[in-house]
Amino acid sequence: MDFGTQKKPCRKCLIADMNPDEILNGIAEYIRAVPADKRVDEETYQKRLSVCKSCAELSNGMCAKCGCFVELRALKPHMYCASEKKLW
Fold first, then answer.
1. Among 16, 26, 44, 63, who pairs with 40 as Cys (CB 3.0-4.6 Å)?
2. Cα gap 13→51, rounded to integer Å
3. CA atoms of 12 and 29, how far apart (whole Å)
4. Is pLDDT of 7 > 80?
5. Given this model, what pLDDT does residue 20 score?
6. What pLDDT, on the 0 to 100 scale, is given for residue 21?
7. CA nearest to 23, candidates 69, 65, 64
8. 81 φ, ψ (degrees, to nearest 5)
């Protein structure tokens, strides 16, 4: 791999200026990198995602109520469903 030509993510760019594949890969990479002690267990995570998948507010992986990427929000223990204003 040639690190000299590898493109670094732009911290000041808008999503519209970024490659969609890079955005999705970055989100997936972030999810994998969250330490076990900072995330809910897999069963809880999948249960939360199931609630999101059945919600009318889900659009392209984002919550129309709060604008979050639901796969990130569902990962964190202290987060709640924005549509219900309660923990999942």
1. 44
2. 32
3. 19
4. no
5. 82
6. 84
7. 69
8. -75, 120
Beta-carbon neighbour count of residue 70 at 10 Å?
23
Question: Which residues, including other chains, have CB under 8 Å from residue 26's CB and lie 6 or more apart?
Answer: 9
pLDDT per position as a tens digit, 19-48: 888 888 888 999 999 999 999 999 999 999
For residues 36 and 53, what is the distance between their CA atoms, to the nearest angstrom?
23
| Segment 51-56 long-range contacts (CB within 8 Å, at least 24 positions apart) | 51/81, 51/88, 52/81, 55/81, 55/83
Determine what percent of the chain is predicted with pLDDT higher than 90.
Answer: 58
Q: Which two tokens stand for residue 35?
A: 């330490």
Question: For residue 41, what pLDDT is reported?
Answer: 96
